[in-house]
Amino acid sequence: MNxxxxxxxxxxxxxxxxxxxxxxxxYKTKSAKDLSLWTLFFLxxxxxxxxxxxxxxxxxxxxxxNAIVLTMIFIMxxxxxxxxx
Length: 85
Description:
- By secondary structure, this protein is an all-alpha fold.
- The protein has a single domain (3-82), classed as Monooxygenase, CATH 1.20.1280.
- It is 81% helix and 0% strand.
- It contains 4 helices and no strands.
- It has helices spanning 3-17, 20-29, 37-57, 60-82.
- Helix 2 (20-29) runs parallel beside helix 4.
């Protein structure tokens, strides 16, 4: 594994983990009222485009990171639409 792949994997791991506390908090409190639906929508769109970019470049760290982040965004969107605040 070369140095740029290692840096990409570490950066991807850190980026992926940043959303986990928010997902856990929403799940525990059953409240997503402070989350902006538009922000989640545009974030999902941007991350989806990064995922496509990673696929086109065949770059595993970009693909894995954005797949994980997009999954967490979809979970937050689900919570936002499911929990009636």
